[in-house]
Amino acid sequence: MANLIRKSSIMGIVGSLFVTAALAGCSSTPPKASETSQQGTSESTTPAKEDKPFVITMMNLSVLSEPPKENDPIITAVEKLTNTDLQIQWVPNGTYEEKVNATIASGQLPMVLLIGTPVQSNIKNAMRAGQFWEIGPYLKDYPNLQKALNPEVLKSTAVGGKYYQINRARSLVGDGMIYRTDWLDKLGMKPPTNLDEMYEVIKAFATKDPDGNGKNDTIGLAEEKSIRGFKLILAATGGGNVWEIKNDQVVPAHESQAFVEAMNWYKRLYQEKLINQDFAIAERVQNIDNGNKGLFGFRLGDNDFISRHSELFKINPKAEMDTSSILKGVNGTKLLMDSGLSGSFVIPKQTVKSEADLKRILQYFDKLSTPEGQNIFEWGAEGIHYTVKDGKADRTPEQSAKYAAEVIQLQQAMQVSDGSLAMEGTYDKYTSKYKAAKKEASAVPGIFVTNPAAAYNSPTFDSKRTQLDKIINDARVKYIMGEIDTAGWKAALDNWRKSGGDKVLEELNKEYQADPNKGK
Question: Average pLDDT in the 268-276 region?
Answer without folding.
Answer: 98
